[in-house]
Design goal:
single chain, 459 residues, Porin, 2 domains, 16-stranded antiparallel barrel, two-stranded antiparallel sheet, 3 helices, 21 strands
């Protein structure tokens, strides 16, 4: 026993002495050197595997504390700042769009997206956040980045790429007592409504103000109420600026450890839709025209219909105790969404239904999902929906052009699979198989397939 204690004392003393010498070097280098020393001592048998593991953990904890202390000393923050978090992701993508057309070439692109942001938390439940994203100009001179995509295409002999403000907001959580919650946000933000890409593309970050409230009925049931108003454009020659507002009520329920459900209803409205024209022939050409599908007036591209749909969404999840090739409880989720736009007399409905097996996000976990979607031309404003959900226009519709486009007037299938290689690294395969609901008169087949393979790093 005495010999064992003596050996351990010698090991600790040896390690402590070496670590003390390394603290004389800059912090980052010191941390790396300490880790290398631990590895060497473990390889030589001076430290056991468990001892090395404990020392690495202790070194990491001390290094984080030292880093925070050094950062605060070098970049002092006001007393009311309580913390800040840097996060983001990088995604590499293989992107292939295919059609049956003999005149249109399959479009194969290698693309990437970079996002990085900072959130600063303050006393009194205040928060400020911003995020930048890679991207490409929406279309023509004078436009900002594509509002529906943060992708940059590998092209033009390695030309330098654009970075855009993807989010910039202030948030105040005025109430958060465990039963009631109320938070207001102003600026450019992640859209606050719990809806699918049938309404808002996943990359769409609107500008305006939002109020999110919640009420916890008990441990098993809760209500959420989301409202928001967003500016769609600002006109210098008119006071009829187009904007959007909406409200949504959601009931979330946990019926047992294995069964959960969610049910929501919302209403949305676009005001001054005549200011959202698609072409330069109109009074306003400042709104990017990315997708197609809506019914428009001739060459001016002015919207024919109003857009004020009611949207109903729901989901039910059941968790199996286990499943082959999956660690832990295995969720099976059924979900769907339906919308009806009273602002149009026809082609005014949309819906989707699907199933998801599993849930990725942690090392070794995966999920696979299937969805069928049917989105009529005037169910919703075509410039907000998923731009990856494409079909082929063999001839130009009103105010549009021929080619492959996302938007409304599209029906078809989506298959998607995710596998988390590590907590920070996920592989995703996505395949859309679609066609137009109402092809352009006299046009041939409108089938299109969109295949994407992604690898994404999160930090």
């Amino acid at each position: 026993m005495k010999k064992f204690k003596k050996q351990n004392t010698t090991k600790v003393a040896l390690f402590a002495g070496a670590t003390a010498l390394m603290t004389l070097t800059p912090n980052t280098h010191a941390q790396t050197s300490v880790d290398a020393l631990i590895d060497k001592l473990e390889q030589k048998g001076t430290l056991t595997v468990d001892e090395a593991k404990d020392l690495r953990a202790e070194n990491a904890t001390n290094s984080v504390a030292d880093f925070n202390k050094a950062a605060n000393a070098r970049f002092p923050m006001p007393d009311w700042v309580t913390g800040y978090k840097l996060s983001g992701d990088f995604r590499g993508r293989f992107d292939d769009m295919l059609t049956d057309s003999s005149t249109l070439a399959d479009r194969i692109r290698l693309r990437y997206r970079l996002r990085a942001g900072l959130v600063v938390n303050m006393k009194d439940d205040l928060q400020v956040g911003f995020r930048v994203s890679s991207g490409e100009p929406a279309s023509g001179t004078g436009f900002g980045g594509n509002p529906l995509s943060g992708n940059s295409t590998m092209q033009d002999n390695g030309s330098k790429k654009f970075l855009y403000v993807d989010a910039a907001y202030g948030k105040w959580t005025a109430i958060n007592d465990g039963t009631w919650m109320a938070a207001g946000t102003i600026g450019k933000m992640d859209q606050p409504f719990v809806v699918s890409p049938m309404l808002f593309d996943a990359d769409y970050t609107p500008e305006g103000a939002a109020l999110q409230t919640g009420y916890k009925i008990n441990d098993h049931h809760a209500l959420a109420f989301n409202t928001a108003g967003f500016m769609l454009d600002e006109l210098k020659t008119s006071s009829r600026d187009p904007f959007l507002y909406g409200a949504q009520l959601i009931w979330n329920a946990t019926w047992s450890p294995k069964v959960e459900s969610s049910l929501g209803i919302g209403i949305f409205d676009i005001v001054n839709k005549e200011s959202l024209a698609a072409t330069s022939a109109s009074a306003n050409s400042g709104v990017p025209y990315i997708n197609q599908g809506n019914t428009r007036v001739g060459a001016t591209g002015i919207l024919t219909n109003n857009y004020n749909p009611i949207v109903i969404s729901g989901s039910a999840t059941y968790k199996l105790d286990s499943f082959p090739l999956y660690t832990g409880a295995f969720p099976i989720k059924f979900a769907g969404e339906f919308m009806d736009n009273a602002g149009a007399e026809k082609n005014n409905e949309g819906y989707w239904a699907g199933i998801t097996l599993g849930k990725s996000g942690k090392k070794g976990l995966w999920d696979i999902s299937y969805r069928y979607q049917y989105l009529e031309a005037d169910a919703w404003y075509d410039q907000m929906v998923d731009d990856d959900n494409i079909a082929y226009y063999t001839a130009a519709p009103n105010a549009g052009s021929s080619g492959i486009f996302g938007g409304t007037n599209v029906k078809g299938h989506l298959i998607k699979a995710n596998y988390s290689i590590t907590d920070a690294l996920t592989f995703t395969f996505t395949c859309y198989m679609n066609e137009l609901i109402n092809p352009v008169p006299g046009a041939s087949k409108s089938d299109a397939m969109h295949v994407m393979a992604d690898i994404m790093w999160k930090f």
